[in-house]
Design goal:
Helix content is 35%, strand content 20%. β4, α4 and β5 form a beta-alpha-beta unit. The chain is globular. By secondary structure, the protein is of the alpha/beta class.
Amino acid sequence: MKFAVLGGTGLIGAQVVENLSAAGHQAVPHALSTGVDVITGQGLEAAVEGADVVVNLTNSPTFDDASPAFFRTSMDNLLAAGAKAGVGHFVILSIVGVDQVPDLDYYRAKALQEDILKAGPIPYSIVRATQFMEFMDAVLSWTAEGDTVRLPRTPLQPIAAADVAGIVAEVAAGSPLNGVLNIAGPDVYPLDELGRLTVSAKRDGRSVVSDDSAGMFAAVHGDVLTARSDARIAPTHYTDWLS
């Protein structure tokens, strides 16, 4: 099969391309660096021409109120190009609980992306993942002041990017779900505890203070970002990943 992987040079995309290629498929990565722009449409028709499956892993450059416009425009452009090319399966990566956090602009934007795909003309699959383990350094940086990091006790269930990429590639090579697959790592932690595990393992000397008003995840109430009962649980534990 031939796959057009938009965002195919990023953290997840590059590994999806590797996994599909290792399985004997033709997986072609596309990104701004390869001359494909999902916002202006430059290079899109050529990118999806002849593809059996489009995997869209592009992401908004910001997490603020500009992100809905990115996902609306990019999805409209990709669905139009895909329909014209006769693509039979369209895959996106989303977030577990994305429709349960109305106070976050970025989560509303990702929920919009899902809705546009569901209403579009191409059979689809949505893979919703919990937070990537690889993002913890960024999360720590958002609320760091000197040697102190303030983090809320929001429950998270982190998943390794390699596990995400493997499942996305598997879903993309299968029949369209016309629905959602939730995936998560094996362990649930309060975010402040994740922060302490991370700074301890990296010996960076900072201390983590519990503060339920700190950072983006303070807007999350309850355990909505952890796995649903029907979720597929990936094998990599955070403590093993850290080591």
